[in-house]
Structure prediction request, 546 residues.
Amino acid sequence: MLRLGCNNIAKNYEYINQLNVFPVPDGDTGTNMKVTITEAIKKLENEKSHIKSFSELGKNFTRDLLLFSRGNSGVIFSQIMKGFFSNIIVNKTSNNSELSIEDVANAFIVAQEVAYKNVSKPVEGTMLTVARLISNEFKSQKNRPKTLEKLFEQAVKVAWQAVKKTPQMLPVLKASGVVDSGAYGFACFLEGMLSYYGGESNLDDNTLSTIEIKFNKFKEQHANEDEFGYCTEYVLRLGLKINQTVEKQKFHQKKFESKVNRIANSVVIASDKDNGFVKVHAHTLKPHLLLEMGLNYGEFEFVKIDNMNLQVNNKNNSPTKRVLKPAIVATVPTEAFAERIREDHDINAILCTDDTGAPSVFSLLEAVKLTNSSNVIFLLHDKNYFLSANETIKQLKHQKINADYVITANPVESIAALTVFNSDLSIHTNVKAMKRFIKEFASATITQASKSYKENKVMVNKNDFIAVTNKSIIASESQLTDCFFKTIDILSKKVKKPEFLLAYYGKDITEQDAKKMQALVEKKYKLFCEFSPGEQKVFSYIIGIQ
Prediction:
């Protein structure tokens, strides 16, 4: 049933996006709900062989919904589901237990209670209203049908009735001639669940035509809006410390929520005590303050900050025709690399992977949209991203978008490859030129060994600094400087006339230490050197010579 609910969201997400005018008209409610639920369902499918009860199913599904939740709609939906499964998790631990009408009716009631509790300032005329009206329906015993099928039919009927009422509750919806996008999405999910029994839709698609007429008026009203701010989301692992000398405070949700509300709105804060993490979603003009607040209690597992002004402008001014000039979609480990690429090459379709992990097909497709090009090159800094890129290319063919990829060994190679990219040339010519340039470019990563071992005739001792190129260890030294010099010696032999050294230092290297290293290198070698902060977690240095 959950999968069917997910499928119905996926089928309708583009329409849901068009309905999106509240709280910010950035057209991503459907996308956020689709990503949230799809990723949680995927995780559930992978774990299904280990799930023996409704309790385990509920624990896993609600945990993953919270972790994968995106946007205001995704986080609120995760809280509705958290409430729905809360009693089921406690009471249905047996592997042969079944859900009764009483269980599901009570689940809808608690769903509303938990969601309203965790949303800082609940707004009526949203998916919260749908949850509340379904809850009210089942609080009376006489309104509870005699079968689960009839109960879900009743829930879906009430859901669509609630959706139709949302314009009367939120003036911005009425002015735009639409129903609430999140409410519509939640009703779609329930309708998908009902389809397990063969149930049908209770709502005719009679709103789309009014969107096209009235949404233009809404766009004009908000054309000069300059304070949407930043949609800021993060997952915080409580008590975790990167810097062992810094003490973390004990997390109190109400106190934290009170602080967040002083600088933000659309605040949703949800915690998972069993797994020790907190999900925070808020709209703010000061995202840096929101991040600093979180660091008092733990460390980030995931951070996402979207400029909602740009999102709204992109939606309102999106061109109807894609350009023919080739564009780049790049992956990099950190924002520091992304900023360098933006500044030097005016490329904005960049995915940072240190916090989010390997890019999914969905995230690559979304990045392609940012380019507005019908010819795209994926510049990947990790060979492990090939499968996602290859599947994305297949899907882009259906959209009549040509795509190819260039894989590099590290982000420094990617930055080097971009120096020969020419948007006036074809994809084929650019890919060929970039691959040729990479072959003439020598690079390596330097990190510290976690154990002693021998590889490729190189003896590595624990805590040695090791240099790696093409997955082979080329140097191992007890001192970082010695390892750096030896790496330069080896890489220089691979380049015909080495003139330029590019180095990005990681989180474990201070700016002062990097400057000292640069001075030593410039003194010893006749190379023009550029040292920049990369902020990467794993490698002390990523260096390249050309």
